[in-house]
Amino acid sequence: MLEKALYGDKKYWAWVIFLLVLIGVGSVFYIMQLVKGLTVTGMSRDVSWGFYIAQFTYMVGVAASAVMLVLPFYFHDVKKFENLVILGEFMAIAAVIVCLGFIVVDLGQPQRLFNVVLHPTPNSILFWDMIVLNGYLLLNIVVGWTNLHAEYKRLPHPSWIKPVAYLSIVWAFSIHTVTAFLYQGLPGRHYWLTAIMAARFLASAFCSGPAILIILALIVKKVAKYDPGKEAIQTLAKIIVYAMIANVFFFLLEVFTAFYSGIPGHQHPMIYLFSGMHGANALVGWMWLMSLCGIASLVILIPPRFRNHSELLVIGLVLLVAATWIDKGLGLVVGGFIPNPFEAITEYGPTGPELMISVMVYATGLLVLTVLWKVAIAVKKETGRA
Amino acid sequence: MDNKRRTFLKFAGVAAALGAGGSVPLTLRAAYAPEQEQYKQDRDALTATRWGMVIDMRKFTSEEDFERCIEACHSVHNVPDQQLPKQKQKVMWIWTDHYEHAFPSSHNPYLAERVEHKDFLLLCNQCDNPPCVRVCPTKATFQREDGIVQMDFHRCIGCRYCMAGCPYGSRSFNFCDPAPYVQEKNADFPTRMRGVVEKCNFCVERLEEGLQPACVEAAPEGGMFFGDLDDPNSEVRRVLRENFSIRRKVELGTNPCVFYIV
Amino acid sequence: MYDGGKIIPGLVIFLILLTFPFWFNIGQAAYEQPELQMPDEETQCIEPTEWMRANHMELLDVWRDMAVREDKPTYVSSRGETMEISLQKTCMSCHTNQAEFCDKCHTSAAVSPYCWDCHVAPEEVSDGQ
Questions:
Q1: Which of A383, B144, B231, C17 is most enclosed, with most CB atoms within 10 A?
Q2: What is the CATH number of the domain that holds A131?
Q3: CA of A53: which chain B residue's CA is closest?
Q4: How close is the nearest chain B Cα to the Cα of C49, in Å?
């Protein structure tokens, strides 16, 4: 089946070569980082996690979001998701690969990565993150590929896939809960030390991931003439709206706790993010942009008349992705480290090399996605299902 | 592909996987297994069941008092003393800050004058319940039996989870190779390489030789005490009995073992 | 053979590349053990030379774990000598010249251990680095 990725028109190959160029250029910067050390990034003694880990966090959410299709389709037999599920599962694979990529580029000694396996440490959440992420990758590869291959052979899905799919449903919730646990168990970081972190992560994941999926699926509809079905997209959009409402609501709950209690430790990160502290205000613009995008996306996506209109849907989803990305991919990690344990502020901004290395990781994920979706779409078209 | 060939390939694949997987535990076991009697503790070493430190801030009166301790520590341990390319990425094992920054939960707008603008000597608190040990995925940061939170620089993968976990900001990451920025290297102690996290180690290498930690030795008379918190007759316990002491961020449950007499 | 015109030459090229190390070195001298600079005072290492040659890597690994992780910084050699476990202070107190001793064999065996990324070699200090 994989050979289907080798047959494509000029636009397809132009896209693949473009991605390979991005990966190549990014690799040069990564080699520079390997030689010089992480000093090429904008991280500091105070903000010791930055853009890489923030992207990792966001993409774990995107990976987990496949469950929003897998759960209805396999567990509740929602047949209309038939041609969308495989795209979701394959997007999950690409997203997990991006996550693993961001972890590797963030490590100070990446060649020692295997130490996490050689010296298992169950009390460390990072150990469990390694396990659940790799397990999820394996589950999605098995479920997605097996079912696609069955369709390719014009056979029904094998019966043993059902329990594996159910496992992947539970596992999807676990990967993002474990990632949230990375943050919410640290005693010194008050922006993160909240029980609702895991719930926030899941809500944000279940709206942003499917939103990205719909946007990519609509692109692919134009480019590869593959229609996953208007009803499927509209049902998924409904799920996205509810998840986004929960996401915004959870965030407002945090704002209430911080400001009604008046506890400085809880307030200061939010004050820094939304209005700046001691003259440091690098993220204020971003956070208000996030709020605007978030509200605007809900204004567009809640009323059915807007949501079912295909162009407005895309605008609403793009605004949603922007809002969730700024929240998790920028505000979350930096807000946890600022102010530092001494109430001082060291601001953070990603450097050029840092961004280029991130482009390399994202391009790798997009390449994996392109190849997998090419195969899936080719099989679906061949078997007359789309 | 006919069924017999397919079955053979499946069988061969499983056998290869089992063989490769089975050989992993065999290779992980050290081929060289030394007898344990060959390794032992040093006769001269200082020992304790729970090391602790008391810093009497009243004895630190001038800037030089602090600088001597910092210089003693950083020079013995090859901590870069020259300016790194990015100051915000500096490495420090011991440093100073004001009361309201060191003890933010005891903020007092009408603080006694003698404390208000005073510098406090800050270092790793060598917590009894250390969050950094809890979060390290490789046990590169681990707690010894005598309570010291030690770092194994050979095993550290540089994930910096420990830095996120430490509530006291005691840990530094080597964003670049520190060796070129160490003016005079101490030949008896290694440097670190880029990509690993480091922090105060309560001078375990000096304890092994029966010496007090470098900062304790360099401190002004009666400024710092170091000893066994579990021994009721030790000097640190005596000093703690006789003077009121505070610790940093106690409400977090880390149980820090560095005490400050204010 | 289907596509035989491409397969046979391909196999031949592959075999030539595979056996490159063998036919390229025909007529050249066999591996020569490098000349190492021996320490001035001591004539015996902490363990017999042949044993050290084969096992110093694993010895150092175990030393590291014993000294750093197990809090057992003293080693008793097979000859009954007690010494401190330290690359810088014990091994390199006799083998002071990293370039003339350690690097010679490592370079010819194409091994690059990263010991000296951290551990300070004695000449480094005396050279004022």
A1: B144
A2: 1.20.1630.10
A3: B159
A4: 17
